[in-house]
Write a structure and sequence with these properties.
InterPro entries: ADP-Glc_PPase, ADP_Glu_pyroP_CS, GlgC_bac, GlmU/GlgC-like_hexapep, NTP_transferase_dom, Nucleotide-diphossugar_trans, Trimer_LpxA-like_sf. It catalyses: alpha-D-glucose 1-phosphate + ATP + H(+) = ADP-alpha-D-glucose + diphosphate. The chain has two domains: 9-284, Spore Coat Polysaccharide Biosynthesis Protein SpsA, Chain A (Alpha-Beta Complex), CATH 3.90.550; 310-416, UDP N-Acetylglucosamine Acyltransferase, domain 1 (3 Solenoid), CATH 2.160.10. Helix content is 22%, strand content 28%. It is built from ten helices and 29 strands. It has helices at residues 47-57, 71-80, 110-115, 118-124, 142-152, 213-224, 233-244, 273-282, 393-399, 412-416, and strands at residues 13-18, 39-40, 44-45, 61-66, 91-96, 128-133, 137-138, 156-164, 172-176, 182-187, 201-212, 247-251, 267-268, 310-312, 314-315, 318-319, 321-323, 326-327, 332-334, 337-339, 342-343, 348-349, 354-360, 365-366, 371-377, 382-383, 388-389, 401-402, 408-410. The strands form six sheets. Strands 1, 4, 5, 6, 8, 9, 10, 11 and 12 form a nine-stranded mixed β-sheet that branches.
Length: 420
C-alpha cells in the first residue's frame, strides 16, 4: 500500500527569484538600484513580496539571482533575509552573475540565470523548483500551485492572471483547453486568445513557473546547447514544453491570499512611475485593495531599529498632521500637513509645508513652505524651501520627470539644477 504524503510539497521545493532586471520604465528610480530593490509600502522593497510568499508558503530554500546594479538589493537581502539556518535544512543564496559557466558570460536571459547555477541547485536535492519574478506586488500561497502541479502530472505549471482579453496584449498569453492545459503560448499577441467559456477574458502569464527539478535541469542543459536560443523562459523554455510536453495553467484566484478586507485578487506590476505611485497611494485608502496589515500572511523585510514617528506644533497653519496617510518610523512631521501620502523611514517635513498624494522615499528633507502634490520623491532628496510642484504642469515638466498621468518624479540631481 502506497504511503500517503504528510509533509507539504513546499518543504521539498526551492524558490528561485529572478531579480536581475533594471525596470527602465521606472526611469530615475532605477538609476541606482534594480527594480526589485525599489522601495514599496512604507518600509518594504518590491522583492519582499515574492520572498514573503515563498516563506509563508513553507518554502525554506530560496535563491535570488541578481545582476543589474545589485548592491542596494544585495545589501537589503543580507540585512533582512539572513535568518535561514542550514541545520534546519534552510538556505538563502544570493546569486550574482559570477561567470561560473563562462569567463565572459553574464546572465543572458531568465533561463540562463538558472542554468548558470545548476550545480548549486542540484546540491540541495530538492524535488521541485518554483521560478519567480522578483518585481510584482501580490500575496500567493505557492503550496497550492505545487499541489496542482503534482496532481495534474504537468511538466510545467504556469501562474496566470485572468485579464480582459484586449488588455493582455502586453503579456505572454496562454491559449488553454477546457482542462486548462496550455495548447499555445503567445508573447504579446495583437489578438489574444480568450478563455474557453469566458471569451472576453484571457490568461496572462505572471512569470511564475513550477517544475520537477530534474526535468528543468535537463531542459536547461538542452537549451544551453542550442545556439539559436535566447535563453529565456517565455521565449524558449515554455513554448518548447507546450509543443513537446504537458504545460498547465494555474489561475491566480486559486491561490491568492486574501484577508477578510480584500475583495479581489490583488496583483500589480508597478513597472511605471504612474503604476508605482498609484499602488503606494492606494494603501492610504480606508480599506485598501491590498491588506498589508494581515498578520496571518506578513510581508517580511529588513526591520530597522528606529524611533516612532513624531508630530509636533499645533498653531494655525503650522500643525503637524496626517490625514489618510501612512507615516513610517523616524519621521518628524514638524508643523507640516499630509493628505493621502505615504512616507518612508526617516522623512523630515518642516513647518508650513503641505504634501498631497506624495510618495516620499527614505531620508527626504522637506523644506518650509514647500507645496508638493502628486509626486514621487527619491531617497535622500532635500526639497528646498518654498518649492511648489503639482500646480503648473508645463513648469513641472521642465524641471522634473513628469509622467503621462501627471505624477512628478523628483531626484536630487533635478533639484541641484533648479535656479531658485
Amino acid at each position: 500500500m502506497e504511503q500517503k504524503r504528510i509533509q507539504p510539497l513546499a518543504r521539498d521545493a526551492m524558490a528561485y527569484v529572478l531579480a536581475g532586471g533594471r525596470g527602465s520604465r521606472l526611469k530615475e528610480l532605477t538609476d541606482r538600484r534594480a527594480k526589485p530593490a525599489v522601495y514599496f509600502g512604507g518600509k518594504a522593497r518590491i522583492i519582499d513580496f515574492a520572498l514573503s510568499n515563498a516563506l509563508n508558503s513553507g518554502i525554506r530554500r530560496i535563491g535570488v539571482a541578481t545582476q543589474y546594479k545589485a548592491h542596494s538589493l544585495i545589501r537589503h537581502l543580507q540585512r533582512g533575509w539572513n535568518f535561514f539556518r542550514p541545520e534546519r535544512n534552510e538556505s538563502f543564496d544570493i546569486l550574482p552573475a559570477s561567470q561560473r559557466v563562462s569567463e565572459t558570460q553574464w546572465y543572458e536571459g531568465t533561463a540562463d540565470a538558472v542554468y548558470q547555477n545548476i550545480d548549486i541547485i542540484e546540491d540541495y536535492g530538492v524535488e521541485y523548483m518554483v521560478i519567480l519574478a522578483g518585481d510584482h506586488i501580490y500575496k500567493m500561497d505557492y503550496e497550492l500551485m505545487l499541489q496542482q502541479h503534482v496532481d495534474s502530472g504537468a511538466q510545467v505549471t504556469i501562474g496566470c492572471l485572468e485579464v480582459p482579453r484586449m488588455e493582455a496584449t502586453g503579456f505572454g498569453v496562454m491559449h488553454v483547453d477546457e482542462k486548462d492545459q496550455i495548447i499555445a503560448f503567445v508573447e504579446k499577441p495583437a489578438d489574444p486568445p480568450g478563455i474557453p467559456g469566458n471569451p472576453d477574458m484571457a490568461l496572462a502569464s505572471m512569470g511564475i513557473y513550477v517544475f520537477h527539478t530534474k526535468f528543468l535541469m535537463d531542459l536547461l542543459r538542452r537549451d544551453a546547447a542550442d545556439p539559436t536560443s535566447s535563453r529565456d523562459f517565455g521565449k524558449d523554455i515554455i513554448p518548447y514544453i507546450v509543443e513537446h510536453g504537458k504545460a498547465v495553467a494555474h489561475r491566480f484566484t486559486a491561490s491568492c491570499v486574501r484577508s477578510d478586507f480584500e475583495r479581489e485578487a490583488y496583483w500589480r506590476d508597478v513597472g511605471t512611475v504612474d503604476a508605482y505611485w498609484q499602488a503606494n497611494i492606494d494603501l492610504t485608502d480606508i480599506t485598501p485593495e491590498l491588506d498589508i496589515y494581515d498578520g496571518s500572511w506578513p510581508i517580511w523585510t529588513f526591520a530597522e531599529i528606529k524611533p516612532p514617528a513624531k508630530f509636533v506644533h499645533d498653531d494655525e497653519n503650522r500643525r503637524g498632521s496626517a490625514i489618510s496617510s501612512l507615516v513610517s518610523g523616524d519621521c518628524i512631521i514638524s508643523g507640516s500637513t499630509l493628505h493621502r501620502s505615504l512616507l518612508f523611514t526617516g522623512v523630515r517635513a518642516n513647518s508650513y509645508s503641505r504634501l498631497e498624494g506624495a510618495v516620499v522615499l527614505p531620508n527626504v528633507m522637506i523644506g518650509r513652505h514647500a507645496n508638493l502634490r502628486n509626486v514621487v520623491i527619491d531617497r535622500g532628496v532635500v526639497i528646498p524651501e518654498g518649492l511648489v510642484v503639482g500646480e503648473d504642469p508645463v513648469l513641472d515638466a521642465k524641471r522634473f520627470r513628469r509622467s503621462e498621468g501627471g505624477i512628478c518624479l523628483i531626484t536630487q540631481p533635478m533639484i541641484d539644477k533648479l535656479e531658485l
